[in-house]
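Below is how a single chain appears once it has passed through the pipeline. First comes the sequence as given, then the structure the pipeline wrote out for it. We keep one example in the README because the format questions we get most often are answered faster by looking than by reading.
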Amino acid sequence: MKIKGFEIDQHLWDALREGQKSSITTALSFLRKAEETKSCLLSMPTGAGKTGVITVISHFSSQQRVLVVSHRRAVREQLFDEINKNFFQKVAPGKELGRKDVKPFSGLPLDKGIYVTTFQKLSSLTPDILEAVKESVDLLIVDEGHSEPSPVWSQVARGLDAKKIVVTATPYRNDLFAFDIDPASSHVYTFDEAVKQGDLVSPRFEQDDRDHLVTRLQELFDTYPEAKCIVKCRKFTDIEAYYDVFAGHFKTLAIHEAFKGERSESKRVSVPANLGKSDWNVIIHQHKLDEGVDIPQARVLVLTYTVGSGRELVQAVGRVVRKFKGLPSFVIECQGAANRTMWLNYLEFDTYLASPAKRTAFLRSLDTAGLLRKYLEAFPDVSYFESSFRKKFELKNIDVDTSLKVPLASVCFIRKAAGFSLAGMTDRLLWDSTRDGELVDPRYDVHGMNVILSICFKNSRFLDEHLFFEPSLEVTIVKEFDEIIAVFDSRSRDFSEKSEYDLTTAIDVNALLTLTAREQFTRTKETHASAISTSARRPERTSMSGHNLENVGYGQSNSSYAITTVKVDNIDVVGERKSSYYLGVGSGRVSDQMRRNFSLAELNLWMQDVAEVIQKPPASRSSLLRSYAKAIKSRPATAPVSAVLDLSDFLHPIILSYDGKQLRVENNFIYAQYQNGFEFVGGAPELRFDLKFDEEERPFLCCEVDVSYDLGRDAIAGVKQQGRFVDLLNKNVRLKLLYKDGTSYVNGHFYQVMLPTEEGFELNKSKLGGLLIPVTELLAANLSEKDEHAVSDDEFGRNSIFFGYFKSGVGNAAHEACGLKAEKSSLPAIRNSTVRMVLKLAYPRALRLAA
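Resulting structure:
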């Protein structure tokens, strides 16, 4: 039969899976094009028959000299065997289907036939021989698998006239842009499609600890006698430990290079042949089974640790999802559910690619990536710019430890949710960046931090109908601590309360303000605050700045405001500034105001220093900061009285659309009373927004009417231009709730209006301490205001407040200042003294008596 003009055996075609047929059809159509300088992309999940696709294309293409390149020797050996005869023997036993000779690559120019090699082999060739090999190739097939593009690829691809086909299992955009993909000649076969077609099995994730693994595996082996289990470990000592766990119960094989010299058949350096048909029940490894080994009987994967990346996880899970006699697939985690989270991230991206429109958009975005590659390649290796020589930037090769600098340490500290893992968050960031059309390259465990480099593509904001290409390099750095994580993001994205990353709220205001008490004295230079109550007669926000606001008088009104941002210096006993911070309450942001241009090693030490303080907080020493409203831990049981939406950050009114109608919401503060919901949109009473709270007591709005928004040309970092209006309100708009008992919700916290003295007041430490003088005599028992029965013509009663006052040193000093004798505490004297004026304010009734 003919497929796109190529003659293929009918029996062979009928034996292929649907995903293989669609991929082969795309490739053969690409090969018929007369002139094509770009590459054909075939994306297929592990286990969907990628090797069979390469085999059929290699043999049935019209190109006579075919070079198949893989990344590892183990994969090369498997490819060679499959392309040579193994694949055809499996799908069409007894038939001679091979059209071309399959030969090992010797490093010389190709004759007719199929040659299988690795990038390492090509990189070992001299430039002259490599050029001769390139000229002899008619068709180049790259088995990219789960690996990143080899640095030698650019040398191979440059000036290559042959057709190029790239076959991958994980379609990361940053991997694919180097191959210069032609979107019109590419095909993506998703994991979801493979499961629906019956080519793969969706794995069932479970959690268990090491002590119960033997029992669980025994249950699975009893139910599925033909099944095998793969155990993946982080390091060699773990392999030894798990071997001891399983070896007494199942026939167990452990594989690792460190077993060199072992004579035991159960501990080997390399993977034995025909492992699938062996009688081993449990196979333990670190990386030996990741690629190049096909074991269809493997139905159980035990992950003893949280793997380092989504790519590694997809690679590992791919070992146990192949179709085999209708048996299910199981993945058992021994350390929480972080691997399952990464798998769900992969499935979400896979679902994204399942949409034809989004898949097309993804493939077309590779053109933009190719533009960037050509843009960067056009630069010389060294250029003179801004008074210095600078090397050409290469995303894959840059040494972040020595070349990357962080101009400003501006880091958000956010609390972790249950199930958080650094690997899972990093993986999610990678998928999100890939989906958004960015080139992304992760660097793991750099001084204990994960670093994500992204190249974003933007059009100039000054243009509407034209494209002016503006690439930018963005950096995200994540470090994990006991209860919190630290995130540096060059785009200033807010990651707090992002459930998709397993993050909850930013650190609370009390923990954040502990950074203002690192030395003996606090110098507050700037404060910004939001009103936590109704503000008809006071501003919605206040700001103060000065050299030292601690010296500025402040009143009771501060208790009606919650701090949003503050700038402080920490001053030691000799008056030297030791540290200086900008603190953002809503996002948990800490910015260093003294130092600049951090290396990654320095940033790591800075993060550790800050985290240590906010996790073991000292008491704040700033009277000014303590005068503001304090956060409380619980919300009222009653419904709020009203709410305020702050839309003032948007540049223009927001356009809303629903049920064929269109209206706009002003970019201002919007006040609404609570009447079984809020009516925030004037003139649209049908748009009632209900208030609900999640398990973390965080409020969110919902609406039964599906309302969409459009920001027009407004470009705000981290905010989508279009979407659901409730999503915009819940993610990007400040909501203030007001309750009858004086409680308010502002900036992610509940507050209650409290006088500054309600939690205690130390007079001698306040600004009034130097103005007020204690009168201890007035603490005596049984004092009355006048002691009326003991009042004489020239003296108060001895148990009166007035007598106690004059008996004290304070009274004597005041009395003498008026020209009176201290021992004469007489009524006539008081009538003529300035002390009378003081007492008149405090004890008017007593002075009426004295008169």
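The first helix runs from residue 10 to 15.

See the next section for the split statistics.
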